[in-house]
Design brief:
The protein is of the alpha+beta class. It is built from eight helices and 19 strands.
Length: about 425
């Protein structure tokens, strides 16, 4: 096996190892026996591959000493232009080098392993798949950057990554109950046991393509090693923002279905137009389904002046600004996160109360990197494009008819009067 293939194999095992730990949630934080066995097995394979790679690199270094270097190209790095051998066996030394080759030297033999050759009808076309050791950085989403994905139930890409995937969901609509129509009975000794039938529906997720692009000057590209971190962060943060927006209020047409406007949403009418009152807050809490992780409020910053003055029946503030750096403000004792991705004051969705663990995100293939020098050829500029596939939607087929015969949901949205 070639050195580049050994490194790719190691990166693949590491990605699978990360997928196991990332699949754990606050509700289910313990690995199953099968997950533990897979984790231990992957650890052993990674150690073995690391040893093999180290030995192969030592052998290659000794072989290089007795051979004259060939196939010399100039590649920029953080220190400026350096001359280094474009060796298909050694792979790329850093992300900047990979990007420079993908954009300016697409025939670099080291890119062959990353060429996007998907044949699925819904897959992305062209470009180069970002190596796994760096793709995790482009896909990184912190709770400070986005509300939904870091707190949602995220399904790994799997294989094939862009295939449609369906999950069973309880049918909790009229004629059923919150357990999908299951009937329970106390049975006398020797008594007949009644049959029960669960009523099930399906939730389907199919990753859709999301692309981001930016136009840069060729002069900047020639110093790509110094500019890569800045531009990569811009593309990553723009992608994170767009995903978060659609997970909150996407329409589900060639994009994720946000919790706002979904069949799982419960809209609570406010008492007075363009105002938020304590009664509105209590009405939202009354229909919240409270069996998941701790729910959170999502609010537009335009609501701040009104939320800041809300009081309970005895004059206590129900909104508290955090005095701990990095900690969220609270409303009725629950975390409140501010977002510019929700509608402004007086509009449906200016304030929401949700349990994000009831939202599902399905990752697909990507990220990929591509470019085109033709659109802005006369102005010496290049279009850089990154694209990936993702889908998301609430895990419910509608509000839940709880045991007290009241419809509740993990997704409560304040509406107009």
């Amino acid at each position: 096996m070639k050195l580049i293939e050994l490194k790719a194999a190691k990166a693949d095992r590491i990605a699978n190892l990360n997928a196991i730990t990332e699949s754990l949630t606050e509700a289910n934080p313990i690995m199953t026996e099968a997950q533990e066995a897979q984790f231990v097995s992957l650890e052993g394979e990674i150690r073995s591959l690391s040893t093999t790679i180290e030995m192969a690199e030592r052998a290659k270094a000794m072989n290089t000493q007795i051979q004259a270097p060939t196939n010399i190209v100039k590649l920029p790095d953080l220190a400026g232009d350096v001359t280094r051998k474009a060796d298909p066996e050694s792979g790329f030394q850093n992300f900047a080098e990979f990007l420079f080759s993908a954009l300016k030297k697409p025939n670099d033999p080291r890119l062959q392993a990353y060429r996007n050759e998907q044949t699925m009808g819904t897959g992305s076309e062209g470009g180069f798949a970002v190596p796994k050791q760096w793709s995790s950085e482009l896909l990184r989403v912190s709770p400070a950057e986005a509300i939904m994905e870091p707190r949602a139930r995220v399904i790994p890409a799997g294989s094939p990554p862009d295939a449609e995937i369906s999950f069973p969901a309880l049918n909790q609509q009229a004629g059923s109950n919150m357990y999908g129509g299951v009937t329970l009975s106390w049975i006398n000794e020797g008594g007949a046991k009644p049959e029960t039938d669960a009523s099930l529906k399906e939730i389907t997720l199919k990753p859709q393509e999301l692309a981001a692009h930016i136009v840069v000057t060729d002069k900047l590209l020639r110093n790509w090693g110094a500019a890569s971190s800045f531009l990569a962060d811009l593309l990553r943060m723009a992608t994170v923002a767009e995903k978060d927006l659609r997970f909150i209020r996407g329409d589900g047409i060639a994009k994720p279905q946000g919790f706002m406007g979904s069949v799982a949403e419960i809209a609570v009418n406010r008492a007075v137009a363009n105002l938020i009152d304590t009664a509105d807050i209590l009405a939202m809490l009354t229909v919240l389904f409270m069996r998941g992780v701790q729910p959170i409020w999502i609010a537009s910053q335009t609501t701040l002046p009104q939320l800041y003055t809300l009081e309970d029946a005895v004059g206590n503030n129900i909104f508290l600004a955090s005095i701990v750096p990095g900690a969220p403000d609270t409303l009725m004792g629950r975390p409140l996160l501010w977002s510019e991705r929700v509608p402004a004051l007086g509009t449906k969705g200016d304030l929401s109360l949700i349990d994000p663990s009831a939202y599902m995100v399905k990752n697909g293939s990507g990220p990929f990197v591509g470019s085109s020098p033709h659109v802005h050829y006369l102005t010496n500029k290049t279009v850089i494009k990154t694209f990936l596939n993702v889908d998301g939607q609430p895990q419910l087929t509608g509000p839940i008819l709880s045991e007290d015969a009241v419809e509740r949901s993990p997704f409560i949205v304040l509406d107009v009067p």
